DNA sequence: CCTGCTGCCTGCAAGC
DNA sequence: TGCTTGCAGGCAGCAG
């Protein structure tokens, strides 16, 4: 499941291998990957063909490639990509067999790498579960006035690794909410890039309970929580960034995910890595939350007096 | 406006 | 063995 660090790894791969290349053709293998996005596969193909990728941008888990027309004008549109649960972007050669779940394929103009070798000429969107998708979208001014964002991502908040992320504003917004802490962390309009795994990891690192009411958060606690989010994601990014050589591992969004080490998520019944010396307390427990699982330490993430599930 | 629930998807694992 | 059920999860859309 790609979260922010995985998407950032993909963004870097796209920046390196795809920017400055022109889309020469498009094959929509499965139109469901354009779900509620365009006027249909034919329109998508017609509009995208001939455009040149000029950049690779990201906000939270949304990735977009601003494109310019052949006349060289400033980009007014972008190819917006969301990897959903199982999406991958692969840069590969035409002779490479079609992956089982390939949904969209772009033919790219020829290009050479740093050592003069020809680069693969296809960008493939592979997505087993079709929770992700693509869209050719209009670029609009960001809601805080800094830069542009695709129209379908304008409601997404800045993520904690964004230099323009505003902790004080996040704290104020958190205090206005009437919900539990984990729901707030998963709300991409409040803070973006955090999914179920990193929410649990960040809450564990900050020693906070998932059901703590947001309106009771103090500024120091919010700062601790944001720092924990940044720490957890930066560590995953460092791990994912190390296996950056192969084209495949590079642009497929998996490297960070499989090499991350987890302290709480998925560790039900195991001793808490922080307070394992403590006996039967200090154990990771699994609890149901909003039709999914939450993992926390029974000792260092105590249930709050007030409880917002 | 705010909050929280449902449905979209596929493949795997567990249970009968 | 072969079926059914549950689980994984981000996010758009919608109900209250």
UniProtKB/TrEMBL annotation:
<dbReference type="InterPro" id="IPR020629">
    <property type="entry name" value="FPG_Glyclase"/>
</dbReference>
<keyword id="KW-0234">DNA repair</keyword>
<keyword id="KW-0326">Glycosidase</keyword>
<comment type="similarity">
    <text>Belongs to the FPG family.</text>
</comment>
<keyword id="KW-0378">Hydrolase</keyword>
<protein>
    <submittedName>
        <fullName>DNA-(Apurinic or apyrimidinic site) lyase</fullName>
    </submittedName>
</protein>
<feature type="domain" description="FPG-type">
    <location>
        <begin position="263"/>
        <end position="302"/>
    </location>
</feature>
<keyword id="KW-0479">Metal-binding</keyword>
<dbReference type="GO" id="GO:0003690">
    <property type="term" value="F:double-stranded DNA binding"/>
</dbReference>
<dbReference type="InterPro" id="IPR015886">
    <property type="entry name" value="H2TH_FPG"/>
</dbReference>
<dbReference type="Pfam" id="PF01149">
    <property type="entry name" value="Fapy_DNA_glyco"/>
</dbReference>
<dbReference type="Pfam" id="PF06831">
    <property type="entry name" value="H2TH"/>
</dbReference>
<dbReference type="GO" id="GO:0140078">
    <property type="term" value="F:class I DNA-(apurinic or apyrimidinic site) endonuclease activity"/>
</dbReference>
<keyword id="KW-0862">Zinc</keyword>
<dbReference type="InterPro" id="IPR000214">
    <property type="entry name" value="Znf_DNA_glyclase/AP_lyase"/>
</dbReference>
<dbReference type="GO" id="GO:0034039">
    <property type="term" value="F:8-oxo-7,8-dihydroguanine DNA N-glycosylase activity"/>
</dbReference>
<keyword id="KW-0456">Lyase</keyword>
<comment type="subunit">
    <text>Monomer.</text>
</comment>
<keyword id="KW-0227">DNA damage</keyword>
<keyword id="KW-0238">DNA-binding</keyword>
<dbReference type="GO" id="GO:0008270">
    <property type="term" value="F:zinc ion binding"/>
</dbReference>
<dbReference type="InterPro" id="IPR012319">
    <property type="entry name" value="FPG_cat"/>
</dbReference>
<dbReference type="GO" id="GO:0003684">
    <property type="term" value="F:damaged DNA binding"/>
</dbReference>
<feature type="domain" description="Formamidopyrimidine-DNA glycosylase catalytic">
    <location>
        <begin position="2"/>
        <end position="132"/>
    </location>
</feature>
<dbReference type="GO" id="GO:0006284">
    <property type="term" value="P:base-excision repair"/>
</dbReference>
<dbReference type="GO" id="GO:0006979">
    <property type="term" value="P:response to oxidative stress"/>
</dbReference>
<dbReference type="InterPro" id="IPR035937">
    <property type="entry name" value="FPG_N"/>
</dbReference>
<keyword id="KW-0863">Zinc-finger</keyword>
<keyword id="KW-0511">Multifunctional enzyme</keyword>
<dbReference type="InterPro" id="IPR010979">
    <property type="entry name" value="Ribosomal_uS13-like_H2TH"/>
</dbReference>
